[in-house]
Each structure stands twice: as structure tokens, then as C-alpha cells.
Amino acid sequence: MSSRDLILARVRRALAGVPDVEITRAYRGPSRTPGEIRLFEERVRDYRAVVHLVDEAGVAERVALSLAGRGARRVVVPAGFPARWLAAADAEAVADDPPLSAADLDAVDGVLTTCAVAIAETGTIVLDAGPGQGRRALTLVPDHHLCVVRADQVVAGVPDAVDRLAPARPLTWISGPSATSDIELNRVEGVHGPRTLEVLIVA
Question: What is the DSSP string of the chain?
């Protein structure tokens, strides 16, 4: 008998005759709170991300201004990203079909995506590889990530986000641009992902 079997046998003997006890789990469920858009905007700014609040009619212009402001000439645009939001942009939209290599992704000026859900409490954007989001590598290699978030995608907290997400999908949780600190707390950005995260909130 192994040590593992011995321990489990002792546990079984100790629990013999003990009645089953129902454990109640009071997990926090989905909720709605006022000011979710404003809170999300504040939290995203706290992460040193660039945030713009626009209406639907102003998305294309804001995308064009953001790309022009960075001198972006070539940007990756995943399948399903609304074409109308690219109408004013003076940059080449690069498709990920066939899949771009890491070197190809490193050579572009940025990536444009939508998202699956955004969390006000944590300032987190979640991508699930759905329409307009593409595969995970698209948002990890380019140095600039411009993400369009619709107001109806912003939820109060993590439980609300989990309630909307499918656990079988490849989820990428983004809280600000990529950043890390060494032992002396010197912040370095762009090590594990994009150096710049820009968020357009469509309200």
C-alpha cells in the first residue's frame, strides 16, 4: 500500500458514518450598478491606457485620428470588424488570412479589435476570439492595440462578465497595456504585449 492509499484509507475510516452536509454557496451573482461606463473609463485610464468616449457616428473618425496620430500605415483587422469603422482611416487593413506569422505581426503598426465584454469594476476588457477579435496572438504581438467597446458590453463586475462568457472559448483578459516591474519597481511597458492600449467606448 502506497502512502497515498494509506492516507485515503484513514480518511475514509474517519468519515465512516458521518452524515452528508449540504454546503451553501452564496456566490455573488450578476448585478447592475449606475455609472458603469464612467467607472470603466476611470479604471481603464488608471492603467495608463488611452480612452476616448464617442457616439456611434464618431467611431470611424476617432479610429482614423488615432491611427493617424501614431503614424500607422498598416494595421491588422480581424474578420468581423465592422467595415464602417474603417471608412475614414488612411491605413492599410491587413487580414489574418492566411494566419500571419509572429514576424508579420511584429512588422505592423497595430491591431484593431472589438471585444466580448468589458468590466467596469476592474477596467478589464475580455476577448473571446469572436467576430472582430481574432486569435490571441493578434493582440499580443503588435505594439498598439485599439479596441472598440460598445456601451452594452460594459458590465459591473467579474461575475457579470463570467455570466456572459462561454468558458470553452479562448478568453484573453486585458487590464491596460502590457507592463511589468523589476525588483526595484521600475515599470517597463510592452514586454508581454502591446505597449499602448487605446480604448474607444461607444456610448
Answer: --HHHHHHHHHHHHHTTPPP-PPP---------TTHHHHHHHHHHHTT-EEEEE-GGGHHHHHHHHHHHTT--EEE--TTS-GGGGTT--SEEEP-SSPPPHHHHHHSSEEEE--SEEETTTTEEEE-S-TTT--GGGGTSSSEEEEEEEGGGEESSHHHHHHHS-TTS--EEE-SS-EEE-TT--EEESSSS-SEEEEEEE-
**pTM for the whole structure:** 0.81
Which residue do the cell numbers 507592463 mark?
Answer: 179
Domain limits, the chain: 35-202
* Cα 95 from Cα 146, distance rounded (Å): 16
Convert the pLDDT of each residue in 127-154 to its tens digit. Answer: 999 999 999 999 999 999 999 999 999 9
Answer yes or no: is pLDDT of 41 > 90: yes
> Does 184 score more than 70 pLDDT?
yes
Architecture (CATH level 2) of domain 35-202: 3-Layer(aba) Sandwich (3.40)
